[in-house]
Amino acid sequence: MQTAIALLDLDYFYAQCEELRKPKLIGKPVVIVMPSIRENSGAIATANYLARDQKIKSGMPLQLAKKLANNDTIFINADKGYYKEISSKVFEIIDFFCDKVEQVSIDEAYLDLTSPLGVEKAEDTCIKIKEKIKRELGLTCSIGLSTNKLIAKLGSNEKKPDGLFILYDNFEKFLGKKKIRDLFGVGPKFEKIFKSHGINKISDVKNFKKEELIEWFGKAKGEDFYNFSNGVDERVVEPNREKQQVSRMITLRVDSRDSELILEQINLLSDLVFIEASKTHKKFKTASLVIVNSNFDTVTKSKSKNEINSIEKLIEIEKILLHEFLDESLSKIRRVGVRVSNFEEGKGIQKTLFEFKSG
Ligand code: DGT
Ligand code: CA
User: Fold this and answer.
1) Is 312 a residue of the active site?
2) Whose Cα sits closest to atom 30 in ligand 1?
3) Where are the beta strands (DSSP E) in the chain?
4) Domain boundary among 60, 81, 102
5) Residue 193 belongs to what domain range?
6) CATH of the domain at 313
7) What is the pLDDT of residue 348?
8) pLDDT tens-digit series, residues 262-311
9) What is the pTM of this model?
């Protein structure tokens, strides 16, 4: 089966977060420092692209970065709490579009976009995710989209910043240009072994047999490197995050303001969302109505309660939110969605799915 896997990576993440809260930094070289307890010591966490032009890089000692910097380069101590807050907001947006998300780091995740929308909708979903992250959070990210993790990850670097790189075939040509170090799992130690056999580029691997790679790296790694160098990567996206929200959306057959007709859809969606959220045995406190109007603008209205513990209660809140929307806006509704969030850990919810099904 054809798959669609994306790797989303935020651009110069810590530095971009700083530009977000201090727009005066935009246009200046910015360097983020992990300070050390010793005075005037520390390491560089990241730098924006203007600072990278001065050859300042992640992992570099602060002293060296200071030598390379110009007078106008700004050094800021890292504020990880703030970056984590921004990161969870980004992941909330990703969760809205994708059910299978594997978070790799604070600013990076694999998304399996194969279903439910299908491979042909994957590009569109990537564009929407990028737009929403930019519009709602003011951040840019870069996405690589392909049939597997390897090409998705390499692709995400192709058009940085704010890029979308899509490649579903012709991997050989794409990989041919890459250095052996770019292959997943090849660090400095393995790079040395490859180089000792005259392999500098990924395309050089084809001069060798799989057995030879197994001899150098052992069975598992040898086979992986052989497959990866041919663009073959069977690794699946392994969802590893607690869901922050559960939502379902539907497109109306025609744009409408008919509350009865829209409520019919809201009832259906509320059923689906409530059952899905209940599977995780959690309480939730916030219900949202998501509306895309005829102009494709998205409006989200939310209400929080102590606990939303029945489908009826969820529908009741969604109905209030719909009437609020219709009172406030003159536009017709194109798509409607129901979302629940603000989960509470540990306390088992109401009924299990089995109990729902058996009435
Ligand atoms: P990019 O993706 O090339 O546009 O730039 P970044 O800054 O997003 O780089 P990335 O994706 O490798 O890392 C994400 C964040 O993780 C980065 O903003 C700061 C932190 N980070 C990366 N490398 C290091 C490092 O060597 N040391 C420390 N302390 N933090 C790092
Ligand atoms: Ca990044």
Assistant:
1) no
2) 45
3) 5-10, 30-35, 42-47, 74-77, 100-105, 108-112, 141-146, 164-166, 245-256, 283-293, 298-304, 333-344
4) 81
5) 172-229
6) 3.30.1490.100
7) 45
8) 999 999 999 999 998 888 767 888 999 999 998 888 888 999 998 899 99
9) 0.77
